[in-house]
Write a structure and sequence with these properties.
single chain, alpha/beta, Rossmann fold, Helicase, Ruva Protein, domain 3, 4 domains, binds adenosine-5'-triphosphate, binds magnesium ion
């Protein structure tokens, strides 16, 4: 029996009712206990948590309604079904309003009983799952999840704490993969708006012609394909936070419109005349140099100042090397758990190589590397030889990629090849080893990339990584 191990308490003053309910539910595999009056029923509930309580409404002394009230207040995870005699239907409706799951009329029909009980238990299971998910969400996006104790990241934490419960606009600046999105979530989930929505908009990913309707929504018939009214992201975010990601990629015309929303917290849907007011907090992020873009006239200065109320600069990983060992440990642990592999360590020499690496892809690059190591590395200690080429052949690569031509000259073909190899590996890393995506990043077609990988001899290692990934 699927829900067989649920604990159920039946409270009724009539012995035959208690017995028949216990028999029917017992036959379904449930653990059923009984109580003959309200007082002893309440005591049982206090002594031991039940999954479900079925209680008669009219009990001598303490009534079913009191039991229900107690459960709603003190044991919200326990469901309650009311059993009601003829003439007390009104009361059972009141009980439902108070939070009873359902009610059954006497004489209780066994089939209906089984159905209602199983529905109540299913409902309870979903409710618990939901609570669990919410808890996980909070854990996931709370500070606990942002790993690091370098001075640089600690300053960022301090700033997040200070700004989180203000409603101020925050501008998160940092290179790609530094954790801007994580910081956005930490701010929202630590703010007074945490129960409200957090609506992300990736300004770079939505085609220019759709972005406006995506953000502001449209009225039915506003344009050819607008067959129904659409609520935009700004409206969805009301009561919560809107996260404008990759903000530097907005067109000039859209910049004007966003500016107005930031100033007045109001806008019109496309094709609409009604002005819509929204209560939103704005967090924006970019990995581009906005100041420079303002200087070059590519980003509106007034919008820049509106967004730049509280800037949070997330330092690149190479400027917080002290966090690398912690992050390594964190990701190794996470991926071992997720992939059900034994926990691995990093050999000290390998750690040295990671500490002196420049991490152009920042934490995302480190995260991807650790995932690969958990899958591919053989023993419980990750060896230098197991690290990708670019970590091991650093001095050689540096020699092959001189900043200036030394007196003794260089080997052009080798240097160009080394440079190409490096870029291909970076693109692969950035795209999580999805070759078609890496090819896009390099503006190559997939076949050309595959040919180049073959020539560069980076086929075999990647193949193992990719197939290992597919099996997990
Ligand atoms: N301090 C941190 N601790 C743990 N994980 C982190 C940390 N910073 C970033 N990460 C992880 O690194 C990855 C990249 O982070 P995120 O997506 O937030 O970067 P980003 O700055 O938004 O990058 P992009 O500019 O490319 O969008 C994510 O998987 C994130 O969970
Ligand atoms: Mg991001």
């Amino acid at each position: 029996m699927e829900q067989g191990n649920a604990n159920i308490l039946v409270i009724d003053d009539v012995l035959s009712v208690r017995q028949s309910l216990q028999e029917i539910l017992g036959a379904e595999g449930y653990e059923v206990e009984t109580a003959a009056d309200g007082e002893s029923g309440l005591q049982r509930v206090k002594d031991q948590p039940f999954d479900l309580v079925l209680t008669d409404l009219a009990l001598p002394g303490l009534g079913g309604m009191d039991i229900l009230k107690y459960l709603v207040r003190h044991q919200p995870e326990c469901s309650c079904i009311i059993i009601t005699g003829y003439g007390t239907i009104q009361n059972s409706v009141a009980a439902m309003r108070l939070g009873a799951f359902d009610y059954l009329c006497k004489p209780v029909d066994p089939q209906e009983l089984r159905l209602v009980v199983s529905r109540a238990l299913e409902h309870r299971r979903l409710k618990r799952e939901n609570l669990q998910l919410k808890k996980q969400l909070h854990k996931r996006y709370g500070f606990a999840n942002i790993v690091g104790n370098s001075d640089a990241i600690t300053q960022v934490f301090e700033l997040i704490k200070k700004v989180a419960d203000t409603d101020s606009t925050v501008l998160v600046l940092g290179e790609s993969g530094t954790g801007k999105e994580l910081i956005n979530r930490a701010i929202h989930y630590n703010s007074l708006r945490r129960e409200g929505p957090l609506i992300p908009v990736n300004c770079a990913a939505i085609p220019e012609e759709l972005l406006e309707s995506e953000l502001f929504g449209h009225e039915r018939g506003a344009f050819t394909h607008a067959v129904r009214t659409r609520i935009g992201r700004f409206e969805q975010a009301s009561g919560g936070t809107i996260f404008l990601d990759e903000i530097a990629d907005m067109s000039p015309s859209l910049q004007v419109k966003i500016l107005r929303v930031l100033q007045d917290r109001s806008f019109e849907r496309i094709g609409g005349v009604k002005t819509i007011k929204v209560d939103i907090r704005v967090i924006a992020a970019t990995n581009q140099d906005l100041e420079e873009m303002v200087r070059r006239g590519r980003f509106r200065e007034d919008l820049y100042y509106r967004l730049n109320v509280i800037p949070i600069r997330v330092p690149p990983l190479r400027e917080r090397v002290a966090d690398i060992p912690l992050l390594v440990q964190h990701f190794l642990h996470e991926f071992s758990r997720k992939k059900k592999k034994p926990n691995k360590r990093l050999n000290p020499e390998a750690m040295d190589l990671l500490l002196s690496y420049s991490w152009p892809g920042n934490i995302r690059e480190l995260e991807n590397l650790m995932e690969r190591m958990v899958i591919l590395s053989e023993g419980d200690e990750i060896q230098v030889t197991e690290l990708p080429e670019r970590f091991r052949s650093k001095p050689a690569a540096a020699a092959a990629k001189p900043q200036e031509i030394p007196d003794h000259g260089i080997h052009l073909t080798a240097a160009v090849q080394e440079f190409e190899r490096d870029l291909i590996l970076k693109a692969l890393d950035k795209s999580n080893w999805v070759k078609s995506r890496a090819a896009q990043l390099l503006n190559l077609n997939r076949t050309t990339l595959l040919e180049k990988m073959k020539k560069q001899n980076i086929m075999s290692g990647m193949n193992t990584a990719a197939s290992a990934r597919n099996f997990l």
